[in-house]
Write a structure and sequence with these properties.
The protein is of the alpha+beta class. The protein has one domain: K homology (KH) domain (GMP Synthetase, Chain A, domain 3). The chain has four helices and three strands; from the N terminus they run αββααβα. A three-stranded mixed beta sheet has the order 1-2-3. β1 and β2 form a beta hairpin. α1 crosses α3.
Length: about 120
């Protein structure tokens, strides 16, 4: 039962933070920030939020900026979820680089693919 409750709270935080970041990044053209994952501690005191940033070369700067302004983001979140949550957890933001990792794997596979195609033609 505890797991279901934590999942619901994580989804609520993810949805509301996504909306907050969507509104904020609309002001800065060219940068897109999305909330990929939210993990809430069992005592609801800490929420670990993983952000995906496009373009990815600005990711570290964006996450640092968000962590520096964590109190303001937490306040905005608290205003949105004040009827669902008694206390808003502390927010810790991390860069989610899984998309970059997948892209790197695809590049490696694509660079390896032509070499295998040539070897198959030579065998025939």
């Amino acid at each position: 039962m505890q797991g279901t409750r934590l999942e619901k709270i994580a989804r609520l935080i993810q949805k509301e933070l996504s909306e907050i970041f969507r509104l904020e990044t609309a002001k800065t053209r060219g940068t897109l920030v999305s909330v990929s994952t939210v993990r809430v501690s069992p005592d609801l005191s800490i929420a670990r939020i993983y952000l995906s940033v496009f373009p990815s070369d600005q990711g570290a700067a964006v996450v640092k900026n968000v962590n520096d302004n964590e109190k303001q983001v937490r306040y905005n979140l608290a205003q949105r979820v004040r009827y669902q949550l008694r206390r808003t957890p502390e927010l810790v933001f991390y860069l989610d680089d899984s998309l970059d990792y997948i892209e790197h794997i695809d590049e490696l596979l694509q660079s390896d693919k032509p070499a295998t195609d040539n070897s198959e033609k030579e065998d025939n």
